[in-house]
Each structure stands twice: as structure tokens, then as C-alpha cells.
Amino acid sequence: MRVLYAENLEYHLGGRDLLDKVSLELRLGKRVALVGANGAGKTTLLRLLSGELEPSAGRIHRAQDAYLALLPQDPQYGPEVTIAAVLKSGFERLERLERELAALEQGLADPEIYHRWEELHARFEALGGYTRRSRYEAVLKGLNFAGREREEARVLSGGEARRLALGAVLLSGADALLLDEPTNHLDLEMRAWLAEYLRSYGGALVLVSHDRHFLDALAREVAMLKEGKLRLYEGNYSAFWQKRRLEREEEERRYQTWLDEEKRLKAILEQAKAWAHSSEKHAIRKLAVEKRYEKFLETRPAPPERDTKALGMRFPALPSPERVLEALCLEKNLAGRRLFRLESLVVRRGERIALIGPNGAGKTTLLKVLLGLLPSDDPAGRVRTGIGIKVGYYDQQLSGFDPNLTLYETLYRMLGEEAHAALGAWRFPFDAQYKKVAHLSGGERARLALLSLSLQEANLLVLDEPTNHLDLETVEALEEALGRYEGTLILVSHDLFFLDRLASRTWHLQGGVFTNHPDTPSALLARLRQPTMEPPAYRREPEPPRAKPLEPSRDNPRKIKGRWHKERERERLEASIGELEARLQALHLRANTPGLGPQEYAEIAEEQTRLESDLEAQYARWEAVSLELEEG
Q1: Residue 543: is its pLDDT beyond 80?
Q2: Of the CATH numbers 1.10.3720, 1.10.287, 3.30.2350, 1.10.8, which one belongs to the domain with range 554-632?
């Protein structure tokens, strides 16, 4: 069943064409990952689909009574509204559907009424109408609200309020869920639970997320939004990434081939111009070459897109001793609750360690104690770094910069006259370099912090949530740069894909217990994960059969066939002309060889006359075919 069809949407913002003729269809069971750089318009597109915004042009066709639920960025709750009330608010729609079904059951003998009942019933079942209670309990437990149903929603922290809004959307009975960064403020276990819950959701699903592991688990199609255009790819995010890599390589090859051919034709044109005054035949040939060159310039392909991985990320490291960091008897407590107790720990040169655990487990606190930024509650606690160890620390608050300085002033204090070049390499446009640090976006502050780290030559990098605020392409660039880093690495992140690519050892912190494992985070979680409540089964509507590609009109097959043959003939003529021109050039080089006798000159002149005659005939035919194609 089709839920929505967006047709040729346009959206203009501040003189910028944010969306340009974007079309998208959503059906029950469809799962789309919406990707694109920060600022590309992903959130705007979701707001248009939900009806929160109106397009500047284009239309959105929604099915009768279709409801699309958009995850709010900054949810607000009124006084005395409880957690339970927020979560159950979505049941109202399912209850209305249930009442309508009951009313229709009185007239099922009528084919039209039966058809309407059948359609509503399929939707009611797909959206979990029969499993409301079990889904409510699953969301309470999965998002860590169990036992807190009577708490007021307005007193929740920002992260908890966002999680509660996610729970309400999951229980809303919507025909389509539009989830904008649903994994924000979720730890690894919550993300795994959410992916499992959404697998059994029967409606349409549009996901915007920087978590590639999450996208891989759910997406069946990827919609890339770039420069206002939307392009669809089948498969999950990893499949999309591979296809884009191959496309970029092909674009580069095609562009380089065009440049080589343009250079060759330009040389031929210059030679034809030089000889044009010598005879009428050469003057005619010059005109033909000019026309062909002008036609060729019209075929110029777009330059290949700049790969974000060319972003100037590099983290040089000073030499390091074998023992990088040692810790003994570290302990930290909070409000009578133990966060961790660590008896002994050694970090060795070149180790790549992921620190994982639930939200609030104390991961950031542990890092600060290891770095000496916080004291251990145990007086016997000791932390020692090896001789020559230089630590680079990236914290979640992105602190350490004067908010009143501009980007350029900040970098000038580090690099002097090289500040402009360094900022440009990290994708800060010239105008943006004079923004104050206080006015930078989250992504800009994150890149500034990483740029600062890259200048320190630290041989121990400690990165606390470095992927927050970064778009996917920048995260991948960071991944590659850290993959080349020769120092020691300690990472905290909720991006499991990112951690698995970089870490070979995992520290796990949960319930006050610290453990050390020689595993990747995924391998460790697979061993530690206990059976959890199975999400309620939805009835998933099978995906409709794919439409066959449109075939050319058969109204005038001769015309289509004739044009195809003309296009192939022009291609053969261009190849033949290129070969004749190359032979002529070789002949001219031979004619200029010192020491040739009269007989050899005569043979060259005869061959040149024949080639020029053939070339003239080929050009005449090429011009005729081109004219026929233009007129036809």
C-alpha cells in the first residue's frame, strides 16, 4: 500500500535552492536511509513529508487518513504530563482505527465496505494494533523508562526527553516513521534494541542517522541528497558506499578521458589553423575541425566530485615508549554509587582501545581520572605515563577554545601565516574563517577540535565521542586518518561501526564493574548480550513487485531504430576521424625527419593527399549525420 508520493518537490531558503525537483515514494514496509552532508536538507525534506513545512513547488500525495510521525528535535512537555501519558498518546489513532473497523463489520456483505475494511485491517495489523500493550512494555524497558511511568516528562534531561519522544513515535501507530537521528542519546545496547524493534515494524521507515551499523541493519534503500537532488540506491549503507566508490572512480576515468581527447583535438585544431592559409582544402578542413571541436566541448562531463576523504586529516605522532600508561587502585563514586574500581591497568604502545558501556556508567569520568584531570577516590590510586608521552584529548564539550576569537585568530596562534591554508584543508571556506568560535555549529567546532589535535603530534590520543556532530563523510575521513595514526588510541563512541573499524581491545564499564577484553566491541557485545524481551511481531506487508523499466514507445519503431543507427554511425565516424588525424600527424613528423630522399618525400606527399581526401569525406559525412540527428 502506498502511504505517500512526493512529486518534484522544491524548497527555497534564503536564496538557496535547498531541494530541486525531489521525488520519493513511501509504501508500507519500505525502509529508506536518507543520507547527505550536514546542511544538505535532510531534516527539511522530512518536515515536508510530515506536513510540517509546505514546499515552494511540487506536490505531496498522501493516502487517505495516512499519518506520518516525525521525531522532534527538541521535544517539549506540558505540566503534569507523565511519561506514561506521552508514550500512550499514540494509541488514540489505533483506537480510532479499531472503532472504524468495528463499525464496518456490520456491512461486510457490501463489496465496497468489505474492501475498505480489508484495507483498514491490513493497516491496523501492520502498525501493531493487536500488540499495543506488549509494545508499550517493550519500549519502557528498551528505552530505560521502566518503573518511571508516573514521573513528569517536563523534568527529564535533554537526552531523556528526546528518548521519550522516540518512544512516543514508536508507539504512535503511524503509517510511516520519519526518524531524524533516532540514535542520539542512546547507548550501544539501546541502539541494538531499537534496530531489533524497528525490524518488525510494518509501516514505512525513513532514517537519518550517522550510525552506519544502525543503517546497515535496517535500510533496504539509500536516498542520497546532494546539491538539492535526490538519488536512490538499492541495498543498505555499506552497499551504497561501495556503489558510490565505484561511481566516483568511473567519473574520474570518464573525466580524464575527456580531458585527454580535448587536448588531442585542440592540438589538431591548432595545426589546422596554421595550415588553413596554404590552400582552400586546408581552409575547409579547418572549418570542419572547428565545428567538431565545438561539438565536442558541448559533451564536457561534470568534474568528478571532490572526495571528502581528501579532507586534510592527519595525526602525526612522536615516538613512544613501550609502556604508554599505567594505573593502580583507581576508584570513583557518585552519590554513594560506585562508578568503577580499577585495580591495575597497563596500556602499551600502538594499542587501539574502545571504552564502551551504558549512558551514565562513568566512561568520561574514567577517562578524566586516567588523564589526571580528576582525582581517584582511593588515596592509593596512581596513574603514570611513560617518558615522552604526549596526550591529545578530545572531550565531549569541545572545550579549550576562546569563544571570542575567530577561527583564523585561533589557528594563527598555533600556526602563524599557515592558518588560512590549514583551515582550507579542513573544509573551512575563507569567509567562515572569520566567524567567532562562539558562533560555530557543532560540526564546525568538532572539526576545529580535531584540527587542533592534528597539530599536537600526540602519541596518545584519547577521543571522547569524536563522531558527534560530524556528517557521515567526515566520520569516514576521520576513520581513515585514525587508521593511519601510528600512536596509541583510546576511543569512546556509540558508533559501533566506527569502533569496530579501529579498536582491537575493549574496556567495558557497567554497573560499577570495569573489565578488559581482547575483542572488538561487536564481538564482546555478542558474548555479553543476554536474551531480552522479544519485540512484538508485526505483520509485515510484503514488498510490491518491482515495476519493469519503461520500454521505448512503439508508436514509431522505425524512427527510434533509425536514430539509434545514426548515433552509432556518428560514433564510428568520430573514431575513424581520430585515427586518420593521428596518421596524418605521424606522417608530418616523418616528413620533418632529416636526411629524407626525393623518393621518400614523394611517397609521403602521395600518402598525405590520400589521407586528407579520406578525412575530408569523413568530416562531410559526420557533419551530415550530426545535422540529421539535430533535426530529428
Answers
A1: no
A2: 1.10.287
* pLDDT at residue number 74: 83
Question: Phi and psi at residue 604, in whole multiples of 5°?
Answer: -65, -45
Inter-CA distances, 439 with 109, 435, 445, 557, Å: 66, 7, 9, 62
Q: What is the pLDDT of residue 554?
A: 42
Q: Assess contact for 317 and 487: CB atoms under 8 A.
A: yes
Question: With the CA atoms of 496, 502, 506 and 510 taken in that order, what torsion angle do they form, in degrees rounded to the nearest 10?
Answer: -30
Distance of CA 375 to the CA centre of its chain: 40
Domain residue spans in the chain? 6-235, 310-523, 554-632
**Inter-CA distances, 72 with 78, 279, 287, Å:** 15, 76, 63
Angle at 259 between CA 255 and CA 261, to 5 degrees: 115
Map 54-91 to HEC letters: CCCEEEEEECCCCCEEECCCCCCCCCCCEHHHHHHCCH
The C-alpha atoms of residue 624 and residue 616 are separated, in whole angstroms, by 12
Task: Give the total residue count for the chain.
Answer: 632
Q: Say whether 554-632 and 6-235 share the same fold.
A: no
The 10s digit of each residue's pLDDT in 150-176 is: 999 988 888 889 999 999 999 988 889
The pLDDT of residue 307: 53
Among all chains, which residue has been given the C-alpha cell 540527428? Answer: 629
Superfamily (CATH) of domain 6-235: P-loop containing nucleotide triphosphate hydrolases (3.40.50.300)
pLDDT tens track for 420-456:
888 888 888 888 889 888 888 888 888 899 999 999 9
Pairing of strands 488-492, 460-464: parallel
pLDDT of the residue at 44: 93
Q: For 189, list phi and psi in degrees, rounded to 5.
A: -70, -40
CB contact at 8 A, 67 and 49:
no
Within 10 angstroms of residue 564's Cβ, the number of other Cβ atoms is 11
Fold that domain 310-523 belongs to in CATH: Rossmann fold (3.40.50)
In tens, the pLDDT along 5-27 reads 999 999 998 778 889 999 999 99
Burial environment of residue 485 by CB neighbours within 10 A (0 to 12, 13 to 18, 19 or more): buried
Q: State the Cα–Cα distance between residues 535 and 210, nearest whole angstrom.
A: 24
Q: How far apart are CA 101 and CA 172, in angstroms?
A: 18
User: What would the grid cell of residue 149 be?
Assistant: 511511568
pLDDT at 311: 65
User: With contact defined as beta carbons under 8 Å apart, do 205 and 179 qualify?
Assistant: yes
CA–CA separation, 403 and 422 (whole Å): 20
With a CB cutoff of 8 Å and minimum separation 6, the contacts of 82 are 149, 150, 151, 152, 153
Rg (CA), the chain: 33
How many helices (DSSP H) and strands (DSSP E) are in the chain? 19, 18
For the record, the C-alpha cell of 114 comes out as 468489505
The Cβ of residue 351 has, within 10 Å, a number of other Cβ atoms equal to 17
**What is the 8-class DSSP label of residue 136?**
H
DSSP 309: G
